[in-house]
């Protein structure tokens, strides 16, 4: 039963919404009033027509007055279509109220005058006027005037000679009174319930809206807070790194001076100690610089310093400076650089740092194995790519650890930190630098067998703009250069 | 012996670089800010100027422009020293009339190479002292 009622109300809502024009739907207050107006007009004639039907049944000789009453009550069904056709709401509501007043006064006029059984319907007039027209005092005044004018007109006819003789017997009058009053009560109750429902759903909607707004405000505040915190963090890291560099430069510089002194004087013991201080200082400086670079990239403040660069020369230079580390741990270091890499617009410093990190990383995790640097350039009709691979036969990386490998502060395995050291900054920095230059670092690895880190960096064809800056840096100056078989560069 | 004017506001950097340059046979005089640097370029008449660009009131670019604007000091080569190896810094150093550009922390061998490039005539004697 309740389900059926819910279904019926839903169907009624759909019908009502069908009749509401877009401009009214946009304004919540008018929309609510139009809602009540439409419900009243759709259901009203069903209930209202009970009166003329009763009269028709009870009256032994029904006259034209019953037809007029039924017609004007049924005319309420026209209003929704008129509203849908675009007639302004308020004037239409006033016409509807006038029709209502007319129906009621008409039935009273013909059946009993001031003692008419249909007089109870008069109470419906101010109620519906309130529902239809809202709180506008101007419209209320118009309704009151309309009411007064109607009373005056019907009263005039009633009291000055156009009295209609009530043809109904007393019992029929009583029956009509019962039916009419019940119908009026049902009608008023229905409208009141519907109005209450709209009010309730509206306040529910409003409280939901308020909740949403509060959530949105809180969310915005949280986002701002997070942005502020993030900016503060980046700022702190940048400042801190800078502040750390000044004393570090002193440590490195002065240990260098002392080292030079000790070398001149042939003080071997001091040379060994000072070398350790100097090396440790430089290692620390490198870490600080990595933190500074990462925070710069994350803050979007890292700029590329582009310069025409001989790629093979740059890679050879990188290989040479990585050789001591790579060949350490009893490793074999191989370097295969194609001599046909050509030149490119490139930030040599960042490129060096990117490849150097990968080589350091490979050397760190490989013992009595092989570290290899391979660089080639692949050119075809659609792409032009620099490929630098760093291959090792080291401990490798488990598949489940590869996913997070390029995230900051990630070392593949915590237990490896104690054995091999590392802050997990290097690979993150390599990847970020590579992406800044328009490329990407990927990794293939098998635990126990080794790893291959591959830099793939588009050259001219891959040059593109992002929101902030040109990311691709490597623009070949000799694009027609054919790729030749890579030549093995002999190493000392 | 070649005389180098070092304009640098950080005391430790000034001290270190001075000693290391002296070790390599250069006479070094120091200025701790831009305006002193401009004044000493005239009074000391050095063979070359090392100019830190991140100075206090008058920055290295401005000091270099003043040195280059004065006919008495315009021919002295100026090597700019910056903490950032950015192309924009390099462009700026060329714009204000610097002869070369190097980054801090100083890689002494690299800086010496740049210095010697402007002082070819006496290179041998300096190398001998070093």
Present the secondary structure layout:
The complex is a heterodimer of chains A (492) and B (130).
Chain A: H1 2-19, H2 22-26, H3 28-48, H4 50-58, H5 64-74, H6 78-84, H7 89-110, H8 124-133, H9 137-159, H10 170-265, H11 268-298, E1 307-310, H12 311-326, E2 332-337, E3 343-346, H13 348-364, E4 370-379, E5 384-392, H14 399-402, H15 414-420, H16 426-436, E6 440-446, E7 450-458
Helix pairs in contact in A: 1-3, 3-8, 3-10, 4-5, 4-10, 5-7, 7-8, 7-9, 8-10, 10-11, 11-16, 12-13, 13-16
Chain B: E1 3-7, H1 11-23, E2 27-31, H2 34-43, E3 48-52, H3 60-69, E4 78-82, H4 87-95, E5 100-103, H5 108-118, H6 123-129
Parallel strand pairs in B: 1-2, 1-3, 3-4, 4-5
Helix pairs in contact in B: 2-3
Overview features:
heterodimer, A: 492 residues, alpha+beta, Heat Shock Protein 90, 2 domains, five-stranded mixed sheet, two-stranded antiparallel sheet, 16 helices, 7 strands, 63% helix, rod-shaped, disordered C terminus, B: 130 residues, alpha/beta, Rossmann fold, five-stranded parallel sheet, 5 strands, 18% strand
